[in-house]
Request: fold
Amino acid sequence: MEEGYISGGEIKLHYMAAGPEDGEPVLLLHGFPQFSYEWRYQLKALGEAGYRAVAPDLRGYNLSDRPESIENYRMQKMVGDIASIFKFFNWQKANLVVHDWGGAIGWIFVTYYSQLVKSFVALDIAHPAAFRIAQQEDITQLQKSWYIWLFQTPEVPERFFGGAHIDRLINWAFSNGKNQLVLDEEAIATYREMLSKPGQLTAAINYYRANSTPENLLSDGPVTLNPVSVPTLLIYGTEDFGFSQRAWDETAKCCSGPYRSVALPGIGHWSPEEAPEETTRLILEHIRREF
Reply:
């Protein structure tokens, strides 16, 4: 596994990578509350398959720059970060694999930069327009989104989840419906260490404060985005705590190009780590296809 820093954009981003430098690029964007470590299984497998796999720490996370103000975590800035990655590596096209908040960024990126994306894989993240519809019309989705409202409050989530209470976040985020942790001890320890860095928890929560306000989520108007034309694979766990089936079903309506969805029975919100072998198999199958 290699690591380095991406410069030339608005901020400096740390990344992990695997595979030959001249291999077909695969860019992997992590979710909340994780970092590039989330993709350890996929990086190894993609590199061994001959791809050039790169997983950055998104802005605010781990070893990447961590701007302080909420405004620095608005979606347009994060999409700009992804464009700067393509420019830094001089990629004309790449496969894009995304999870959770990395997926929220990915859906927007693939809409506006479709010419740069060969194929798209979204894990455990619905299309923004599908999520808006589910929020407004499906009570199950509204109930599942309770934590988004908590994260809007200043200082409260940091006091409840931060510092000596970081295990509250770990136990809430990475537990299944039976209050059992779905990740191994090494992964839990790694995320605990990262989330305990000064300012880290606030930076992660600022993604919600900047982009998932009640005004945005409950607006009467639809999310106006052009349909995704890039070949798309959606992978989600049937036990996902954050999304209802309505959100997954509506996502299909937001894609005009080749589209497929795969539900992983018994898996929650962390497919790349809960079901690494099946997730990796599906990713490789998708990016190898000729559309």
